[in-house]
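Exercise 7.
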Amino acid sequence: MSYIPAGSTAAAPWALWVSPASAGWTYAGLRALNLSGETVEFETGDEEMLVVPLSGSCVVECDGERLELQGRESVFAGVTDFAYLPIGATARVTGRGRFGLPTARATRRLPVRYGAAADVPVEVRGAGQASRQVNNFCAPEAFECDKLMAVEVLTPGGNWSSYPPHKHDTPGEGEAVLEEIYYFEGGPGYQRVYGAPGRPIDVLAEVGCGDVVLVPHGYHGPSMAAPGYDLYYLNVLAGPDEKRSMAFCDDPRHAWIRSTWQDQPVDPRVPMTAKPDGEVTA
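Solution. The predicted structure, written as tokens, is:
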């Protein structure tokens, strides 16, 4: 099932648990924790993970390291710091708030690390009603992992993101094969996923806080923020390639949209949040 309503995969202590097995694929997963000061201990197993504060702050302990995550009030309040957890580890998270844990099956064991909010590349993409903000905190060029990639996208009310529609499902030059998860907050909004010839998939889901959409293949986008309602999503991506890449292929019917952005102003509402140094890449 590509659309996963909030709460439908809860399994204590996890408020959300999408594993590669439950998604019906091989690499990408996502968990979420809601904490009120308690400690949750878990094994990472064969998955590398991130701990990403969606709201609140926490302490992460793993492999003898103790990382304090300052976090943020909400996903719309600022860019957050985060922690990396390797495969084959025991981890403890103690805090108050809501936390996302993107995961990916991996084979290379990297050290526990802290990702500072000030080091997160913040990018403005698109123009006009396709203006949006992308926090590239775990993009390939921003943070080292074995398989895992993750970014955050903030879309002002009335705007479209993940647009033009694009896909990552065909090996070859200029396109990486990836499994992708969309986790939403804010909204209501709408998410579209549709297939290429010979590989059908058809999703048009109304999404809000805690909802998830899985993209095993096919074109995904647009992500539409209803007028008056800002939309946030966390993208988790992983695939078989040795070198991490988020390369994509636009739907040829809609690729021309990109050429129109040079003649349109960027929506003044973006960037919607900033990292501590305020730096943004156009």
